């Protein structure tokens, strides 16, 4: 530094020009997510949404936020950033649809040690793809360059979604003894349990660029980065097709054991036949390589079921047909039972591990 040249923000590691370059790159990506109620233009101090233009008459707003956990480390270490943004959207909007809410808009937070506009734009492109798949407008976000807090090349993501549901359609509703339980297939590990996944990979001899032992034609990183399924549009269609869906549960962190009680009234439990689940090969590989007990698998991973649907036994044919018309492949694998002591979730059969 010389007397006629003082320190600048760039000298401290923050490049405002890089941030502006990234905004220019992502504007068309964001614009592609516009929908009734939002024009998806960025650059102001806040994003706007018009509920009346979206067609709601007496809506309840539902908000959700989430991240993608240590799955981002696989994206960072492999250099494959294209799908991690889809995960970010999925983890938020799936938590809206379980309450019957249609996702309306999404905001993202992207924090990194040193901003690479190309990487940032790739991540936002994935976020935009997820928003389009969920029918949500990407109306804003924040990019934070924080040298010293994150190492160069590292980043983290957080997402924030808001949806709406007409007052009388809020879920769960009237879950009762004897109701039946359907499961909807997962695309893979989704975005939970990746600290354990990464520990298993680290203990193996495999590198991210090696062939995945459980997915032909993909590298290990590509297979594990398979994005979380977004269940929004099929479930919105099914909810419009039938009024007989009583509850939905997104199987995320905590697996079946911790997520299913969230939709149950006091005194009721849920019983699942594990033998009915078509367990994807990735879970068999993880269980074998990590010597993971079945109970641990059930509390850490989705094990092949990413969403649970509850309906009255008398309406099971109607609900199954509605789900199939929406493009889903539901399995009937359980029912609502009495809770016993502190137990709310019961299993029969065994996972095909």
Task: Explain this structure.
The chain is an alpha+beta fold. 32% of the residues lie in helices and 22% in strands. Strands 6-8-5-9-7-10 form a 6-stranded mixed β-sheet. A 4-stranded mixed β-sheet has the order 1-4-2-3, covered by helices on one side. Strand 2, helix 4 and strand 3 form a beta-alpha-beta unit. Helix 1 packs parallel to helix 4 (117-134) and helix 7 (232-241) packs across helix 11 (316-325).
Secondary-structure blueprint of this entry?
Blueprint: H1 16-31, E1 59-66, H2 71-78, H3 84-97, E2 102-112, H4 117-134, E3 137-145, E4 155-166, E5 180-185, H5 194-203, H6 220-224, H7 232-241, E6 245-250, H8 255-259, E7 268-273, H9 281-290, H10 294-300, E8 305-311, H11 316-325, E9 331-338, E10 345-348
Parallel strand pairs: 2-3, 7-10
Antiparallel strand pairs: 1-4, 2-4, 5-8, 5-9, 6-8, 7-9
Structural descriptors:
353 residues, alpha+beta, four-stranded mixed sheet, single chain, six-stranded mixed sheet
Runs in which pLDDT lies below 50 for 5 or more consecutive residues are none
Termini Cα gap: 63 Å
Question: What fraction, in percent, of the residue positions are helical?
Answer: 25-40%
> Structural class, from secondary structure content?
alpha+beta
Shape: globular
By DSSP (H or I, 4+ residues per run), the number of helices equals: 11
From the alpha carbons, calculate the radius of gyration and give it in angstroms.
22 Å
Q: What is the N-to-C succession of helices and strands?
A: HEHHEHEEEHHHEHEHHEHEE
* Major beta-sheet overview: 6 strands, mixed
Overall pLDDT: 93
